[in-house]
Amino acid sequence: MTTADLAFLLLRGATAILCALAARGALRRSRLPGQPRQRRWRAGLAAVVMLALGVFAFEDGLHVALGQPGEPIGWRSWVWVLLDLFIPAQVIAALATLRQRDRLEAELAAAARHDPLTGLPNRTGFTEAASAVLAAVARDGRPVVGAMLDIDHFKAINDGWGHAAGDAVLREVATAMRRALRPGDVLARVGGEEFALLLLGVDTEAARPLLERLRAAAAMVPHPGAPERSVTLSAGLAPVQGLGLAALENGLRSADGALYAAKAAGRNRVMVAG
């Protein structure tokens, strides 16, 4: 076997390896959940084509290098070798670009449903999560309670110590509440300093101690520039009666009324609607 034969065989082997990698990547893409059928078919077809090209490249390398040892390899064969090597390399590069696009799309979708400051769901994310929860609890008839919470005197924090301090309080209060919640409860930031909460499997009487626990968790957050003061929460509770978004909105509207009553009564307290 001449040096040219060995080089030809190595290039054909490299092509076959790249084709196998490209076929594997395309096959994985064809099995991604949530992909439109057309995209799955295209990815599956690409996998078949890459496998066929890889087999052809390997067989051609064996035929030329071993079947006709010592015979000169024409320049057209070298051109085809390089072209065949280029094809799977481009497919692999395209698959990498598609993966990056998928990640960006997922990040944008997550950003559209989450508050960037606290990491909690925003109003859109809360509505989607709450809808899924209500559909789940409908099957076993468990009660659901909605709550609205508000950081007391938050404007004074922003005005007195700056918006950076206010943002820090929001982040820390959100983190403290999230840690105090049970698995399955849905907490979201739906306004400047306002949060919405869906509590599962409890009525308003059983939910009240849970809200008191959130209030105690918020009180552990340091007050900016005034260590002798505490960060406090006011909250309103109301049952969610029925299913669907209309029932959720009605429950939260009642909870919001209870929240205003808690503020009017002196803040730093939990009140139940009705």
Please explain how this structure is put together:
- The structure is a single chain.
- By secondary structure, this protein is an alpha+beta fold.
- It is built from eight helices and five strands.
- It has helices at 3-30, 37-67, 75-113, 123-137, 154-161, 163-180, 204-219, 244-264; strands at residues 144-151, 186-189, 194-200, 233-239, 270-272.
- Helix 8 (244-264) links the parallel strand 4 (233-239) and strand 5 (270-272).
- Helix 1 packs antiparallel against helix 2 (37-67) and helix 6 (163-180) crosses helix 7.
- The mean pLDDT is 88.
What descriptive keywords fit this protein?
single chain, 274 residues, alpha+beta, five-stranded mixed sheet, elongated
Q: What is the mean predicted local confidence, pLDDT?
A: 88
SS summary, helix count = 8
Assign the structural class, choosing from mainly alpha, mainly beta, alpha/beta, alpha+beta, or little secondary structure: alpha+beta
Proportion in β-strands: 5-15%
Radius of gyration: 31 Å
Low-confidence stretches: none
Using the alpha-carbon principal axes, give the shape: elongated
